[in-house]
Write a structure and sequence with these properties.
Chain lengths: 343, 537
C-alpha cells in the first residue's frame, strides 16, 4: 500500500474514533447552556411592551417549551440533518452565519500563525544556538512581553499608535475598506478571492487590514512556539547524530537546518496544532477590537444574550476543527519523521 | 492582430484617465455617504420581529413609511421629536372626527413603493391588519392606543382609509406614528405568505418591501447594512428626497474604536459612545457633539413593593432620603442629563408632565428616623442589582449607594448580573432593589404610569399595585377634557412621590457625536438616527 493510501486509512479510522467525542461535546454543551442562569425568551422579548404572550411565543420559536430530554433529541436530529438552528441575535440560520464567518476567522488565524512561525522559528533556533547569551535573553524578553500583554491591550495600543497617532494603518474595522468593492465570494478568504478576481486594489485593502490584528495574535502566540523550538533544538543539538555530523565535517548550516531542525520540529508541530486551535477561539478579543466578522465574536455575543443555538453550533464547530487539526498534525508527523506511524 | 507601440500608449493613457476618474468618483461617493457606527447589530429588516434590536428600529424608520409621524421641536442645544404635533407621512392629511373616535387618512397620490408601485389603501389596510393580528411586537404596543382588531380599519376608496376606535383614546393617533405601523408593499409580500406564516414574517425579516426614503442595498446581519436613496421619495418636511445618496450603518463593538473613527473623520456619526469619552471628544473640538436630554427615558432605582422588606412604605421613604443623589449624578453620569430629583413642591406638582423632578433630597437624619419608624432601628441587609451592560454608569452608582445607605445601617450587597439573567429576574419579580434605565415611546403621563406603575408586566419594575393609581390611569387614558386630564396626572405624580415605589434619578442625555460637517440630527422616540433629516453642509 502506498503512503497516500496508508494516510487515508489512518485518517478514516481517526475520524470514526473521534465521533463519540464530538457527540459528548454536543450533549455537554447542550446541557451546560440549559443550566446557565437567564431565560433567553425573556431576554429577547425585552422590547417596549413585550409581555407574557411574546415571551411564550419566543419560547415556542426556540423550542424551549418542550421538556429538556425531548429538546435534546430534537437537537440531535436537527444536527444530523445539518440544521444547527436559528440565531436570535442575527436572525439568520446558525449554519449560514458560521459559514459566512468562519473564513474570516481562519484567514486571520492562518496569517497570524504564519507570521508567528516566521518569527518564532528563527528566534528559537538563534536562542538555542547561543543559550544564555544576549540573543537568548532578548528572545526570552520578547516572548514574555508577548504572552503577558493581553491581546485586547496590544490590539488597542496598535490601533492607537498606527491608526490614531501615526495614521499609517487603515481604519481598524472589518476585513476590507467599507467603500471598496468586494470581490465575488468563492472561498470566503478575501486574499484568495481578490487574487482570483484579479482585483489587486481589494487585495491590498484586505491585506492592509490584516496586518494589525494578525500581528496582535502573532505576538500573543510567539512565546509557546519560540520556547518550544528553542527547547527542542537544544535537546537535538546535543545528540549523537549532530555530533557525528559535525565530526564528519558537514557545514554548520547544513547540520543545524537540515539534520537538527527536521528532528526538532516534531514537538513544534504538536504545539502548532494546539496553538492553532486555541487561536481560533482566543481570537474573540482581537475580533472584538478590530470589528472582525469572525466566529469567535459571534459566539461571545450569543453567549451574553443566552442565545443557545449559535453557542452550541460554535462549540461543535470548534470541536470538529480540533479533531481535523489533530489529524493534520498526525499526518505531518509521519512526513517529518517517517519512523513514526500512528495507528 | 498586431499590437503597435501606439496602441500601447493609447491604452495606458486610457487606463490612467480611468484611474483618476475612478478616484474622483469614489471621493464623491464618500461625500454623499453617511457612515454611522454603532455598538450593536441590526438583526432584522422587520422591526416588529420579537427580539429586534434598537439598531434594527433605526434602519426600518428610514426604509418604511408610516401614515403619520411626529414633528420636531427644539430642546436643549438640539432638535427632538415632538409628540404633540403629528404630520402626514404617507397620508397627505388626517381628518379626526369631532368625537375623536374616527380618523380618515387621505393618502398622497404620488407616494410610490421602492419598485414603483403606487401606495394604495389596500396596502395600508393589509399592513395595519398585520400590525394588530400577526404575533409580533406591534400588537402589544399599539393596543395601548386601542388598536386591537382588523375590523377597525376600512378602505373608503383607493386613496382613503378610515380607522376607528371604540373610545376616544389619547394615544390612538400617536401609536400609528410608531415604527410598528409601517406600510408594506402587498404585491411584493403576498407571494411569500404561507399557511404557517400568513403575514410573511420569515420573508420580511431579510427583505424590505417599503416606500421609505431609503432602499436596502445590502444587509449583512451582525455586520452592516447599506442603504441607497429612493429618489422618488418626497415625504420629507420640505417635499424633497433625503440628502445622502448612501448610508452605511456598521457595527463596531469597541466603543473606543468608534470614538477614534469619528474623530479621525472616517465615520460620520455615533450615538452610543461611552459617556466618559464624550466630554473629552467635545473639548478636543474635532467633532460636533449634540446632547439632547432623553425626555422620554429615565434611570431609576426600584424597590419590589410586593416583597418584604420593601413592601414597607416608611422603609422606602427612608432609603429615598438616604440616596446620595447629587454625588451619583456626578460620578456615574458626569451630570450629562436632566436630574429627576430635587423638586421643590410638597403638596402636589405644578406641572402634569412626567417624568419631572420629584421632591427627593439627601437627608440622613430624616432617613435614620424613618428607618426607626419603619421598624428597623438596627438597619437591615439587602442586595442591589444591576446589569453588566450598564456597568459604566451603574457600578459607581452602586458603590455610592452602598456607602450612603451604610451610614444609616442598611448593609447593601452589590449584585452584578449578565443582561439575560437580569431580564429574567426582573420579569419574574425576584429582585428586591435594582437600577435600570427605561424608555416610553409615547411620553404622556398616563402612558408612563400605565406602563411602569400598573399591571404585572416586566416594565412595572416595582410591581406597584395601588388602587388609586390603577383607577386614575384607567380614567386618564380616555379623558378628553384637558383640565381634568391634567388634574388626574398631577394626582398620580403626588401619590408616586408619597409612596416611592421607585426613585427617579435622571434622564440621561443622548450624545450624538458627529463630524463637524454633519447637520440635522433629531433625537427620535426610538433613540436612533433618522437619516432623512441628516445633511452634510
Amino acid at each position: 500500500m502506498g503512503l497516500a493510501g496508508l494516510i487515508a486509512r489512518r485518517a478514516g479510522r481517526r475520524i470514526v474514533s473521534s465521533l463519540p467525542a464530538l457527540l459528548g461535546v454536543v450533549v455537554f454543551t447542550f446541557l451546560l447552556m440549559r443550566v446557565l442562569p437567564g431565560d433567553p425568551a425573556i431576554f429577547f422579548a425585552s422590547g417596549p411592551n413585550a409581555g407574557q404572550a411574546e415571551i411564550e411565543q419566543i419560547r415556542e420559536q426556540m423550542g424551549l417549551d418542550k421538556p429538556i430530554p425531548q429538546q435534546l433529541v430534537l437537537y440531535l436530529r436537527d444536527i444530523a440533518t445539518g440544521n444547527l438552528g436559528r440565531s436570535m441575535t442575527t436572525g439568520q440560520p446558525v449554519l449560514s452565519d458560521l459559514k459566512n464567518r468562519l473564513p474570516a476567522s481562519l484567514e486571520l488565524t492562518f496569517v497570524a500563525l504564519i507570521l508567528a512561525l516566521s518569527l518564532a522559528l528563527p528566534l528559537g533556533i538563534l536562542a538555542a544556538l547561543k543559550p544564555n547569551s544576549i540573543v537568548d535573553n532578548a528572545v526570552r524578553f520578547l516572548c514574555t512581553l508577548g504572552v503577558c500583554v493581553p491581546t485586547f491591550v496590544s490590539g488597542l495600543l496598535f490601533i492607537f499608535a498606527f491608526y490614531y497617532l501615526l495614521g499609517i494603518a487603515p481604519d481598524p474595522t472589518g476585513r476590507i475598506d467599507i467603500f471598496a468593492s468586494q470581490p465575488p465570494v468563492v472561498t470566503g478568504f478575501l486574499l484568495i478571492d481578490a487574487a482570483l478576481a484579479g482585483d489587486w486594489e481589494a487585495w491590498r485593502s484586505a491585506a492592509s487590514r490584516l496586518v494589525l490584528p494578525a500581528s496582535t495574535m502573532a505576538l500573543f502566540v510567539l512565546a509557546p512556539l519560540a520556547r518550544m523550538t528553542r527547547a527542542s533544538m537544544l535537546a537535538v543539538l546535543t545528540s549523537d547524530f549532530v555530533r557525528t555530523g559535525e565530526a564528519l565535517g558537514l557545514s554548520r548550516r547544513r547540520v543545524v537546518l537540515v539534520y537538527a531542525l527536521r528532528n526538532a520540529l516534531l514537538p513544534v508541530l504538536t504545539i502548532m496544532g494546539i496553538v492553532f486551535s486555541t487561536m481560533l477561539g482566543a481570537n474573540v478579543l482581537v475580533e472584538k477590537v478590530f470589528s472582525w466578522p469572525g466566529v469567535a465574536s459571534y459566539a461571545l455575543d450569543a453567549l451574553l444574550s443566552s442565545d443557545y443555538a449559535p453557542v452550541q453550533g460554535f462549540v461543535l464547530l470548534m470541536a470538529t476543527i480540533f479533531v481535523a487539526v489533530n489529524l493534520t498534525v498526525d499526518v505531518l508527523y509521519g512526513l517529518a519523521d517517517p519512523r513514526i506511524s500512528i495507528e | 492582430m498586431t499590437i503597435t507601440r501606439r496602441d500601447v500608449l493609447a491604452g495606458s493613457a486610457a487606463l490612467a484617465t480611468a484611474a483618476t476618474m475612478g478616484g474622483s468618483a469614489s471621493a464623491q461617493t464618500r461625500a454623499e455617504t453617511l457612515r454611522q457606527v454603532t455598538g450593536n447589530a441590526v438583526n432584522t429588516l422587520d422591526p416588529t420581529m420579537p427580539g429586534s434590536t434598537r439598531e434594527a428600529f433605526g434602519i426600518s424608520v428610514n426604509v418604511y413609511d408610516r401614515l403619520v409621524s411626529f414633528g420636531k421641536k427644539k430642546l436643549g442645544n438640539g432638535w427632538v421629536f415632538d409628540p404633540d404635533t403629528i404630520r402626514g407621512e404617507l397620508a397627505e392629511r388626517v381628518v379626526t372626527s369631532a368625537d375623536g373616535m374616527t380618523f380618515t387618512f387621505h393618502l398622497r397620490r404620488d407616494a410610490k413603493f421602492h419598485d414603483g408601485a403606487p401606495v394604495t389603501a389596500e396596502d395600508v389596510k393589509w399592513s395595519l391588519d398585520r400590525a394588530v393580528s400577526a404575533r409580533s411586537l406591534a400588537a402589544a404596543q399599539i393596543q395601548t392606543g386601542s388598536w386591537t382588531k382588523p375590523d377597525q380599519f376600512k378602505i373608503i376608496d383607493p386613496f382613503t382609509v378610515e380607522a376607528k376606535v371604540d373610545k376616544p383614546d389619547r394615544l390612538a393617533l400617536p401609536n400609528l406614528c410608531t415604527l410598528y405601523c409601517i406600510i408594506f408593499n402587498t404585491k411584493l409580500v403576498k407571494p411569500h405568505m404561507t399557511a404557517q406564516d400568513p403575514w410573511a414574517q420569515a420573508w420580511l425579516k431579510d427583505n424590505a418591501a417599503g416606500s421609505g426614503a431609503y432602499m436596502v442595498e445590502s444587509f449583512k446581519p451582525g455586520e452592516q447594512v447599506v442603504l441607497r436613496r429612493n429618489d422618488h421619495w418626497k415625504g420629507g418636511e420640505d417635499g424633497k428626497p433625503a440628502h445622502f445618496r448612501r448610508i452605511i450603518c456598521q457595527t463596531i463593538p469597541e466603543a473606543a474604536t468608534r470614538a477614534s473613527l469619528i474623530e479621525k473623520g472616517d465615520a460620520d456619526i455615533a450615538i452610543d459612545l461611552q459617556a466618559s469619552d464624550v466630554p473629552t471628544l467635545a473639548t478636543r473640538e474635532r467633532v460636533k457633539v449634540v446632547s439632547t436630554p432623553q425626555f422620554n427615558a429615565f434611570t431609576m432605582v426600584a424597590f419590589n413593593t410586593q416583597m418584604a422588606p420593601f413592601n414597607n412604605v416608611k422603609l422606602r421613604q427612608a432609603v429615598a432620603a438616604a440616596m446620595p443623589y447629587q454625588d451619583i449624578f456626578k460620578a456615574a453620569l458626569f451630570e450629562r442629563g436632566a436630574a429627576l430629583f430635587g423638586g421643590t413642591w410638597t403638596e402636589g406638582p405644578d406641572k402634569a408632565v412626567f417624568p419631572q423632578p420629584m421632591p427627593l433630597k439627601t437627608d440622613l437624619a430624616k432617613a435614620k428616623q424613618l428607618l426607626t419608624e419603619a421598624g428597623f432601628p438596627n438597619g437591615l441587609d439587602t442586595t442591589f442589582s444591576f446589569n453588566v451592560g450598564s456597568a459604566a454608569v451603574s457600578e459607581p452608582m452602586a458603590a455610592l449607594i452602598k456607602e450612603s445607605l451604610g451610614k444609616i445601617g442598611i448593609r447593601v450587597d452589590i449584585q452584578k448580573l449578565p443582561d439575560a439573567q437580569i431580564s429574567t429576574l426582573v420579569t419574574e419579580k425576584k429582585l428586591p432593589f435594582l437600577t435600570e434605565t427605561s424608555i416610553a415611546w409615547l411620553p404622556s403621563t398616563d402612558y408612563f404610569f400605565r406602563n411602569f406603575f400598573t399591571g404585572d408586566q416586566r416594565w412595572n419594575y416595582s410591581s406597584w399595585n395601588n388602587a388609586e393609581i390603577n383607577a386614575l390611569t384607567a380614567q386618564a387614558r380616555f379623558e378628553q377634557d384637558a383640565a381634568t386630564y391634567e388634574k388626574l396626572c398631577k394626582r398620580m405624580i403626588a401619590v408616586l412621590a408619597e409612596e416611592v415605589p421607585m426613585i427617579m434619578l435622571w434622564q440621561p442625555n443622548q450624545d450624538a457625536v458627529m463630524a463637524k460637517t454633519i447637520d440635522g440630527y433629531v433625537y427620535g422616540y426610538h433613540r436612533q438616527v433618522d437619516y432623512r433629516d441628516m445633511k452634510r453642509v
